[in-house]
Specification:
This protein is α/β, with parallel strands linked by helices and about 160 residues long. The protein is built from four helices and seven strands. The protein has a seven-stranded mixed sheet with strand order 1-5-4-6-7-3-2, covered by helices on one side. The longest helix has 13 residues. It is globular. The C terminus is likely disordered. This is Thioredoxin family protein. It comes from Pseudomonas eucalypticola. InterPro entries: Thioredoxin-like_sf.
């Protein structure tokens, strides 16, 4: 059974993902690993984050070839702000070769497609999901609320979302 592994601080993040750097609008480069990884960035008191964590917990066993992590935003702003995270829930989908994509907000179906894309078994691909060569889950297609775009902010420059990062 695949369980979600909690990461508590920046050192734990770097151990599993490397430093990480933004290479495009929602694209990132992380350290390569032996298999795909997904990280849920969440905040205490964020209802959408709680629902996303429950969904990931429910489907984690369907993706035994993907390492799934979760990490709170509290106390870790120095790590997330340079990576362009401005709202939660946010997910980093990272392929074994280190290519990464940031998904903010969105729907469970988007996350399901991202997990399927990370699964090495080609028979597990869903015809409804975008091909791996296209952006797996374009955050810009989601509606601009609850941190659903990695670049959304209020007029004061504060990030949107259920809870500030």
């Amino acid at each position: 059974m695949n369980a979600i592994k909690p990461l508590e601080n920046a050192a734990a993040f770097v151990e599993h993902f490397g430093e990480g750097k933004q290479t495009g609008a929602n694209e990132y480069a992380f350290a390569p690993a032996r298999r795909g990884r997904l990280l849920l960035l969440h905040s205490a008191g964020c209802p959408s984050c709680s629902m996303r964590l429950q969904h990931l917990t429910a489907i984690a066993s369907q993706h035994p070839d993907v390492d799934i992590f979760s990490m709170p935003t509290e106390g870790n702003g120095a790590l997330w702000q340079p990576l362009g995270v401005t709202g939660v829930p946010a997910q980093f989908v990272v392929h074994a070769d280190g290519r990464g994509l940031l998904i903010t907000g969105g729907k469970d179906e988007q996350l399901n497609c991202a997990l399927i894309d990370l699964t090495p078994d080609s028979q597990n691909k869903d015809p409804v999901c975008p091909s791996p060569s296209s952006p797996a889950v374009p955050a810009a297609s989601a509606s601009p609320s609850h941190g659903r775009s990695s670049k959304l902010a209020t007029a004061s420059g504060q990030p949107r979302g259920d809870r500030r990062t």
